[in-house]
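User: My collaborator and I are trying to settle a disagreement about how two of our proteins should look. Neither of us wants to argue from intuition anymore, so we agreed to look at predicted structures for both before our next call. Could you fold the first one, then the second, and keep them clearly separated?

Assistant: That sounds like a sensible way to settle it. I'll keep them separate. The first protein:
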Amino acid sequence: MIRFLILFWLFCATSFGEVMLLKEYKDENLSGWVMSQKYDGVRAIWNGKELKSRNGNTINAPENFIKALPDFALDGELWSEVGEFEFITSTVLDEIPDDKAWENIKYMVFDLPRFDGNLYQKMDYLNSFLSSNPSEFISAIKQIEIKDNNHAFAFLDMVVANGGEGIVVRDPNTKYTSGRSSSILKIKKWRDSECEIVAINGGKGRLEGKMGSLECVDIFSKVAFKIGSGFSDEIRTNPPKIGTIITYKFQNLTKNNKPRFPIFLRVKRGE
């Protein structure tokens, strides 16, 4: 048996606390790191007995899905296809699991939180398990060694061109730690467009008495959606009028052609 299989790893049968989170890429040297596609799904932590969300809530997966999972901890995304974020969330977060819908969900695993080894060893261990215990529900995310930053951005271009959200880059020797790590980063590209404001929603909580969000219609696709971020306090106090055309940015489109994570940029033109 190859050496990585005898590396000591720890398994925690209960919640193992705060999960590892990504930071935004700035201008780091990525040579020698690894990269993979960033899957636009629902973050899920398997602790050996229960499947939990990033916030620690139980994910009610069907029994056959749970039985396919190993007795060691996994971290990854529950995902189906590019552009199906709405389907994924409605399926995964449903209190009563729809067995038929869950047949399309796959657990895209990118880390083994309690394995004492580097990322290559972790993925080898997982792939060895899957070789002996094949499952249509689990997949180890392929990690590609980065030659240089240009290599990483060429990969990003390819992922985005195929409808993906972005990529994740990381130092393969970094151990799994709670909270945000400067050794695991996300890199995304944004698209922009223009939309017309059709309604203004009041804010709640700290935004009471101010604008909370804008109801908009994209002037090109005619798709209606809501923008709730990117506004300064000044704009929230004195929002653009209904009928104003604004420019916004977004990551990609959902299956229903709605902009994913739309963010206000600026006023384009008024009435």
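The second protein, kept apart from the first:
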Amino acid sequence: MKPSPTPFQSNRPLVVHGVKVPIKEEEVSSVIWQALQSGNFEAKEAVIVRDLLVPGDRVLELGTGLGVITSVMANTPDVLIWSFDANPNIVALARRVLEANDIRNVEVDQGIFTSGDPDTVTFFIRRDFWMSSLIEEQGLYESTIELDTENLDFFVSTHGINVLVMDIEGAEKSLLAGASLTGVDRIFLELHDHLYGLSGVRSIFNVLSELGFSYEPRTSVGPCVLFQRDDGSVRPYND
């Protein structure tokens, strides 16, 4: 049975998936606050990432959010994590969460990545921060910011990244389409078929297949999917 989060008090933060979340109700939307209180916030992701990493992994996380999943991953011994979110307000909240949990093996910063040459893009910030994106047509937004992008493969190469974790509200389709991902052996991402349809899902699978990745059915849950390098070995039966 999933443990219930601790009700918020001024001097006692929520605890979600074993992570202290010192965030006040007025700092997030009502939808996100309810998800935090119920323990449903990023629940599928939390289950998957507990078994995703092994000691020594070097992780690039795109879409830090509140840092809850970041914190869960950071509990793996000898793991280093670089985490980026485009929304500066969310970056500030995530840093608060990491500090509250005394996590020291994570670097969190504002940033956004592309698989092409560096560029400047417009990012649309929405009250439900998990709907903030590069897509104006996605719905009403509160504000916009201009961000200079970084090249994904360059960062992966220079930091020795071998695990890529993404929840970037539809941008995964274009990001993966032009990437080489040399050195990466696992990719965990959330699919957003409501933004690019099943054809977009098929495109992501095709691109990753061409790069040597296979869908991991034993770990994936719904839109939260894991891909890993396929070494061609036959796996033991697991009922």
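Some points you might bring to the call about the second protein. The mean pLDDT is 92. The two ends are 21 Å apart (CA to CA).
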